[in-house]
Hints:
This protein is mainly alpha-helical. The protein has a single domain (11-450), classed as Hydantoin permease (Orthogonal Bundle). The protein is 78% helix and 0% strand. Helix 8 (140-158) crosses helix 15 and helix 14 packs antiparallel against helix 15. The protein is globular and about 65 Å long. Bound molecules: 4-fluoro-L-phenylalanine (PFF). 4-fluoro-L-phenylalanine is lined by residues 21-22, 24-27, 97, 100, 222-223, 225, 228, 230, 321, 324-325.
Amino acid sequence: MAAGREHFGSRFAVIMAMAGSAIGLGNIWRFPYMVGENGGAAFILVYILSSFLLSLPIFFSEAVIGRSTHANTFGAMRQLAPGTPWRWLGLLTILSPVIILSYYSVVGGWSVEYLLKSLALQFRTPEAAAGFGGFISSTWGPLVCHTVFLALCAAVILGGVKSGIEKFSKLTMPVLFVLIVLIMIYSLSLPGASEGVRYLVKPDFSKLTPSAVAAAMGQSFFSLSLGVGTILTYASYIHKDENLLVSGAGTAAFDLVFALLAGFAVMPAVFAAGIEPAAGPGLVFETLPHIFAKMGLASPWLSSGVAILFFITILVAALSSAISMFEVGVAYLVEEKGISRRTATLGLFAFAWTLGALCSLSFGPLSGFKLFGETLFSFCDKLTSNFLMTFGGLLFTLFVGWKMDKMRVRNELTNGGSLPMNGRLFGIIYFMIKWVAPVVIGIIFVTNLLL
Ligand code: PFF
């Protein structure tokens, strides 16, 4: 273990930090929409199954690599497979989170703008709610907000693992749950909300096409931040005596519960306002402000209050995820290149800021610039969520299942045999890592490649 390396202080800290990475924009705008589109409760069922049967094996693979080496992604692969091409996996999983961070920070920036707007009590008229397209395609406003968002991440990262990431996660995660529950209660109390509930819970197996199943799996990877080294890096800060199975299951459970709460916070309000649920960012930044404005006509203070709580929730959820992506690169630069945490943070800030700025401009002045037919923002999004995350997840499971010494994997998951885990449970998890996960993820990867 590297001298002076920091560790999370407790199990609670581990789960809060990992849940912080997992709970993000994916839970709030993507999950509710996908549930409705893909068969309601039928989709939720596949999502739960794939979270526990497929995503958890990848989670454990990353966690085993990270905790057994106590190193950054590149250092970990070098330690476990010196002189082999596996080090490229270490490098790939430094590049992927930085790319995600860049465009994620643009959306994080939008939430800064919308929080400020709601604090200025602007969502009281339908006109104020209509400006989303105009805002994101403008030049300076989104750039300033992207800068503010990334600077907030950098400030937490500069604090280090314990005083930065751990403190931030322990404070904000419980608050996030309280906020989303309050918003959900309000949303469910609106007249007409039951339509939205039905939209989420009615199982419609006819909509459960193969592509809906692949979407459920993809969403569960994205939501648990898998395949890009964030879980590996956070696991490298976990003490040897912590139970990885409990940390993994706890994180997956928090992530799932939060996604469900977000679904019940968003969709009933959408239906109560008589609006068709929209896809992606439009749902959060266009439809909801419209709803706040509609409610504002009847009760301006209440609707402004709910809008403020809602955009705080999005901002905090996005920040805690972005921080985990930031940390992957910082850990690499500090440990492999021997530079200070401060310099590493500034360097990554500069890189992610530049790529993010180009992504932001791709909604406006640079919208004509296309890569493989996509704007830069959507290219970075598709490249990472459709390819790099699944590819990384596939390689992590292959590495742990086929290359790593089985005894070492067992020792890591059972803490040297001291945990009360019977051989059968380990056998099942190992089988999932070695056979089931790589085959299914491989199929998803090839399908994404071909479609
Ligand atoms: N899990 C995050 C979300 O649901 O928004 C997204 C994410 C975070 C992806 C961290 C990748 C990552 F490394």
